Amino acid sequence: MPPTSTFALNLATTRKPRPKDSELVFGRTFTDHMAVADWDSARGWYDPRIVPYAPFALDPAAAVFHYAQEMFDGLKAFRGADGAIRFFRLDRHCKRMHDGGERLCIPAIDQALMREAILSLVRADADWVPSTPGTSLYIRPTIIATEPFLGVRPANRFLFFVIASPVGAYSGEAFTPARILVEDTYVRAATGGLGGVKAGANYIASLRAAEDAKARGYAQVLWTDVVEHTYLEEVGTMNLMVRIGDEFVTPPLGGSILAGVTRDSVLTLLRDWGFQANERPIGMEELIAAHRAGTLREVFGCGTAAVITPVGTLGWKGEDMVINDGKPGEVSRRLFDTITGVQSGREPDKHGWMTTLDA
Ligand SMILES: Cc1ncc(COP(=O)(O)O)c(C=O)c1O
User: Fold this and answer.
1) Average pLDDT estimate for 116-126
2) Which residue among 57, 107, 151, 197 is least enclosed by CB atoms within 10 Å?
3) How far is CA 230 from CA 4, 90, 225, in A?
4) Is 265 in the pocket of ligand 1 (CB under 6 A)?
5) How far apart are CA 298 and CA 316, in angstroms?
6) CA distance 114 to 36
7) Confidence band (pLDDT; 50, 70, 90) for 174?
């Protein structure tokens, strides 16, 4: 007997063809169903349901279209060699989405409801969780303001939904160190702004700089602080880690940086392994001095999508700084292997990060 759920099931009568594991492209194909719940001020979150994946009918005046009152999250489920489906740090993602609502005047999502939405959706679409090593099911919970009105105030109607997309294996290329431009004109987020939450608005704010960097031959930008453009913040849509000697440094969470789940996992593993892993401000001056002294050993981004992305080159004021001879660092590799190992069930889950789906 499948576990009981508060989500009403309205399953699709026909199923879509599923792409082969070798043909998966990030975020292009979506599973047969979605989880949905509504909110209004009288009822709170209500009518949780699993329905066939389909477009929404929304009023053109819906607040999300005009004032971008929305937020999302992103996490993954993996199929292990034993066939079991496991979610990486499900509760932490539910807590981040719950906590983020406050800043955006979005009603807090009930964490148990969000968890159940994700479990129920993946139960309905279990066949979509790919099995080739390195593949996964990317899960995208989202809340949008649906009240039709023009005027700047918090909406009084919202829609919560969860969609899912099978994503391909990390290719060898994924661990090729990236060329990154240190951004000294645009900002993604400022202290006191929205950078600490996964608001769509942050990603729009980042597009211009990323496009300009690409035109100059860099894959992404390294964001710097809004005042001096010297303190490091995030790299593209990943948290930043820097290794100077045997100290790992990541910028502190101060409202402009997202509290990444991978960031937290990396800090935990580094401390387990006996490294100093500090959350403290780090500026370009310190980075350049370490590079000159030969102690800048590794720079990498970390996030759900690619887990660890090594940085091989940093462009700054017209010059390129090559890190570790442009090769991935040894600890970057060890972190990638350990986290992907825990996710696939190959490595022991010492910290209780995985939730297994009871089919
Ligand atoms: C801006 C930003 N920073 C950092 C991260 C990394 O967070 P997580 O490790 O929770 O995926 C993300 C999302 O992936 C992001 O969008």
Assistant:
1) 98
2) 57
3) 53, 34, 6
4) no
5) 17
6) 10
7) low
What is the pLDDT at residue 182?
A: 98
**Nearest of 169, 138, 161 to residue 75 by alpha carbon:** 138
- b/e map of 300-312 (b: 16 or more CB within 10 Å)? bbbbbbbbbbbbb
Indicate if ligand 1 lies below 6 Å from the C-beta of 239: yes
Asked whether 262 lines ligand 1 (CB < 6 A), one says yes
DSSP string, 143-192: EEE--B--SSS--SEEEEEEEEEEE-PPPGGGGSPEEEEEPSS--S--TT
Rg (CA), the chain: 21
- Whether the per-residue pLDDT at 1 is higher than 60: the answer is no
Say what the pLDDT of residue 170 is. Answer: 67
8 A C-beta contact, residue 267 and residue 102: no
**CA of 262 relative to ligand 1 center, distance in Å:** 8
In three-state secondary structure terms, 215 is: helix
Q: Which residues of 112-147 are buried (b: 16+ CB within 10 A; e: fewer)?
A: ebbbbbbbbbbbbbeebbbeeebbbbbbbbbbbbbb
